[in-house]
Amino acid sequence: MKEVTDISSYDATKLVFYVNGKRVEETDVDPKMTLATYLRDKLKLTGTKIGCNEGGCGACTIMVSHVEDGEIKHFSANSCLMPICGVFGKAVTTVEGIGSVAKNRLHPVQERLAKAHGSQCGFCTSGFVMAMYALLRNNPNPTVSDINLGLQGNLCRCTGYRPILEAFYSFAVNENGTLKVSEDNGCGMGENCCKLKKKDENGICGGEETTPGYTGGDRKRKIQLSDLSDCKPYDPTQELIFPPELKLHGYESKSFAYDHDHTKWYQPVSYENLLCLKRELPHARLISGNSELAIELKFRFIDLPAVINPRQVKELHARHLEDDGVYMGTGMSLTDMDNYTVQLMKELPKERTGVLKHVHEMLHWFAGIHVRNVASVAGNIATASPISDLNPIWMASNAQVVLDSEARGETKVHIDEKFFLGYRKTVIQPDEIIKAVIVPLTQENEHFAAYKQAQRREDDIAIVTGAFLVKLDPKTLIVENIRISYGGMAPTTKLALNTMKKLKGEKWSQEFLDKTLGLLSEELKLPAGVPGGMSQYRLSLALSFFFKFFLEVSKKLNLTEIKFVDCDVKIGQDVPQTLYATQLYQEVNANQPVHDPLGRPIKHVSGDKHTTGEAVYCDDINVADCLHMAFVLSPIAHGTLNSIDYTAAMNVDGVIGYLDAEDVTTGAQMGHHSDTPVFVKEKITFHGQPIAAIVATDHEIARRAASLVKLDYAVEKPIVTIKLAVDENGKFIDLDFTAHKTGQRIFQTPEKLSPAEIRPAKIKAGRREKTFITGRDRK
User: Which residues span the domain enclosing 367?
Assistant: First the structure.
C-alpha cells in the first residue's frame, strides 16, 4: 500500500470538471483559487460577479451538479467561496450557460426577470437568476415559500426586491399544484390578481377591496406592473443534461489529489485513508464549505501547505436515531442536516423534538441557503467562533461530538464548558476528525428554546445567541435541571455555570425570573471596550432572551400568575410565510399618445443582458498587458508612520514596483475638501488609510505582496467621535446650506442670529453600517 500522502497513489491527479457542458481539465491551477476567480479570469465567464467576496451577497451564485447515491443532484453555491478543486468530477452551470441575448435565446427565468423590471444596476441580477434556476432544477413546481428560501442568500440594493419576487413568483404553484400565472392571468398574485376582480362604479379593478386608501387622482395602488402571461412556460425537459462522462466513469467515487507549488489537495474516498491522512498531516486544514478558510486566505493570506476535503467519504454521511439522540455525520451539508431534522420532526412525538425544532429554526437564520448547501456542522464546531449560531444549542442541550483518530480510536465528547478551551480553541486534537454530532432528544417535562439577534434578519452573523433547557417537576414546578448557554458574551461559547448551580431546586415563579436575571447580569457582565463593542446592548439581549424563554415556558404551563405571560413573544422569531408589501405606480393617462413613453413601465434597455451576464462592467474588461495595483493600508486609526520596508513584497514573483508619498506631487490632496493626502507621509488619521501601493502583473499577486509590506509606526489614541475631534482642536466646516429653488438659507451661522434665536442643545447621531455591493461601474 502506498503512502496516503503520495499524490500518485490517488485515482485522479488532474482536475476534471464541466462548465456549461464543456469539459475542463486542469494541471496547473492553484488549489487556493476560488471558482469565481477561475470562471472570470481563466474562462472569461464574467457573468458571475464578485461582490462581497465572502459569501454574503449572492452575486457570484452558480449551480453545481453531481452524482450522489446514483442520482444526479443540483445545488446553488457561492462561487467566491468554492475552492476550484472542490468541483472535481462535478458540473458547473453559470448564467451564460442557460441563455444568451446574442443567441436570441433567453431562459424563462431570465425572460421573466427582465420583463418584470427586476434589475436596475444589474450587478446582483445574474446571482438571482442562478439561485432561481437551481431551485427549478430541483423542484420545477415550487411554492412561494420555496422561492423565498431559494433566494435567501441573495441581496439587491436597487430594486427593493418587489419586482424580483413578482417575476419569480410566476413560477409558483398553489396548494393544489396549479400554476399561479397562466395565459389568462399574467400576475404573480394568482387568484388575487386585480384582473380577476370586478370593477367598481369608478371603473377600478377590485374596487376598494384591492386598492385600499385610493382617493382618486393620478396615482393609485396597483397590484400588478408587468404582464407575464405571454412568457415561455418552464419546461424542465429542455435543460442541459448532466455530462455522461462524469456518471459513466464514476467520478463521485474516485479519490483525487492535486499538487501545485506550495499547496497539496487531498480528497480521499476511504475513511481509513482519511484518518491516515490526519495522522500523517495533523495540521492540514479540513475543508467543506470553505466559508471560514476562504476568508483567512483572502484577507490574512495564511500559508496553506495541505488541504483535506472529506466530503466524498461515505461514512461521514451516516444518519440514524440512537437511544436518546440523533446521529448525524459531518459529511452532510447543513441543508441535508436540516432536511433530515424536518423529517424526524414529522416522525417523532412532538415532545421529543424540542432541540430538533430549534436546530431547524436556527439553521434558517444561519448564513444563506447557498452557504448551507455546502457548509458542514463540523466546521462550525471546530472553528469555535464565540458568536456561533449552533454551538450554544449544542452546549445547552448537552450534545456530543464523535471524534476519531487512527492512534486512539473513536470517542464521544460532550460539548460543555470543557470543550472550548479559549478563543478559537477546542479539545479536538490535531490528528482527530469530527465524525458526527449527536443531537439529544428532549425528555418528558423538558423545555428547550434558542434565539438569535443579528444586525439584519437573515444572512448575517449573530450579535448574541442564547439557548436554554429546563426540566421541571410538573406538580411542584421545581427546577430539576437547567442549562443556559450564550454566544457573543465571552471569548468562547459560554455556559452560565454559576447561575445554573444556584437555580437548581428553585421553584419556577416570578421570583425565580428576578433571581435569574440578577445572577445572569453578574455572570455575563462585559467590560467597556470589549471586542465587538455594544457591551450593554449585548447584556440586554442576553437577559431578554432568557425572559422570552421564561414567558414561553410559563405560557405553555398555563401559569397565569406570571406577569406578562400573555404577551406576544413571537415577534422576529418565526420564519415569515408571506410577503406583505405595497408600492405605488404612476397611472398613465388614457389620452396620452402611444409614442409618449413618460410614466410608462418600459423594460430596462440592458435588462436582458443583466439576466444573461452579457452586460459589461469595468471589472469585466480584460485589458491586454494591464498591470494591477493593491493598496497597503494602515492597520491603525491614529498614529505616526516611521518607516516602510518593501523587501519581502519586492521578492514576490510578478511584482513590478511600488508607489508611496514620495511619488506623489508635493502638496497633492484628495477628499471632498482636498484635506487628505493620497498616501500617508507621516501622520495616520484613519484606519485603512492608503500608505502605499504595490504594482504587479496580477491582482492577487499585488494583494499578497501588499500584505508582506512591513510598517513601523507609533500608535496614538484614535479619534472616533465628533467630540474627540473637537477636543483635538478639530474644526467644523462652515457650509452654506440653501433651500432648493428658492435660494433661501436653511441654516444661519450663530453670529448672524440674535441671542433670542439661539437655543443651546446637543444631539448625538449613531453610526450606520452599510453593505457595499455595486462598486463596479457599468460600461
Answer: 318-556
